[in-house]
Amino acid sequence: HEWGGSNIQELGELTANLTSRLNNLPPVIHLGVFLDTHIFKNIAKLRAAKLLAQKVLEVSGEKREIHLVGLTSMREWTLYERYSNM
């Protein structure tokens, strides 16, 4: 996200990181997902992240609880962002 990747690239990276760390996972998994000012896109992104994580855990046979954490990059918090009223 910080390097300008798309939402699909971000979800792919999240899934790849989760897959590579399956052996060292705690009982509760916290997944950080970057959010911006587009509410419907954010909802879809959160749902996709949760579904991808559930599928990875299902295929690997792991039983873990998943918590999503919304993160802000503050990238859109400028005077020149047209969707912001700051």
Keywords:
alpha+beta, two-stranded parallel sheet, 2 helices
3D architecture notes:
The protein has 86 residues and is α+β, with helices and mostly antiparallel strands. Helices cover 42% and strands 19% of the residues. The protein contains two helices and two strands, in the order αβαβ. The protein has a two-stranded parallel ribbon. Strand 1, helix 2 and strand 2 form a beta-alpha-beta unit. The longest helix has 22 residues. The protein is elongated and about 45 Å long. The two termini are 22 Å apart. 5% of the residues are buried. The mean pLDDT is 84.
Helix/strand-derived category reads alpha+beta
Q: Helix segment count?
A: 2
What is the radius of gyration? 15 Å
Number of strands: 2
End-to-end distance, in Å?
A: 22 Å
Secondary-structure element string: HEHE
Largest sheet: 2 strands, parallel
Short structural description:
The protein has 86 residues and is of the alpha+beta class. The protein is built from 2 helices and 2 strands, in the order αβαβ. It is elongated.
